[in-house]
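Reading group handout, session on sequence-to-structure problems. Before we discuss, look at one worked example. The prompt was deliberately terse, the way you'd type it at a terminal:

> structure Lecithin retinol acyltransferase

The input record follows.
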Amino acid sequence: IMKNPVPQAASLLLEKLLLLVHVRPLPEGSGSGGEPPPAPGYYDTSCFKRGDLLEVPRTLFIHFGIYLGENRVAHLMPDILPAFTGDRRQIEQVVTNKRLILGVITKTASIRVDTVEDFAYGGSILVNHMDRLFQDQVLGSEEAARRAEKLVGATAYSLLWNNCEHFVTYCRYGAPVSFQTDKFCETVKMIIRDQRSVLASALVGLASIVCLGLAPSTTLPTILIPFFLWMAG
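And the output record:
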């Protein structure tokens, strides 16, 4: 959904970093023979309205969906299965950890409709928590729901450019953005800048040793300054 003029190599690096820390597999037991998801009725859906944006905070990320009414949520999930079969009965089964991880790696996904219980999987749900960030950009509830329903089906997946947050912000606000991805990218940039500072300090220190010789006045700063910069980063 989104495009960005980031060089391809940098984009691939960021995607690999996001794969390590941004994506957390589904809770243990999800579709793998363990503890089942909460039974229908576990969540009070009477406070949800069609077109609401639902958030489920996880340990390392937030999962998003659009409420369609009647205990149904449209959400984008990495999933390898749509790349191999068009059998709706198989695809509509709860996504397992293996399907999710392989979907991230192969960049395949589906925008699917699940029950609130399967969508949240026991997590707490926030409703329209992002509206405060968009203010007057909030689309009508029916428009948001219709956008979500229109997009249901197989889709490409990208941690940077097309994830579950891009999907819901497009549906409810008309602008596909991902704040948690942007925040992670900024953190990576800060780390890179800090490491460059450490490297630059080390090189200057080594140059002073070469030019002025080994001495406490040159050797100690060469060791200590990069060390403290690295610790601060």
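Points for discussion. First: Confidence is low (pLDDT under 50) at residues 1-6, 222-233. Second: The two ends are 33 Å apart (CA to CA).
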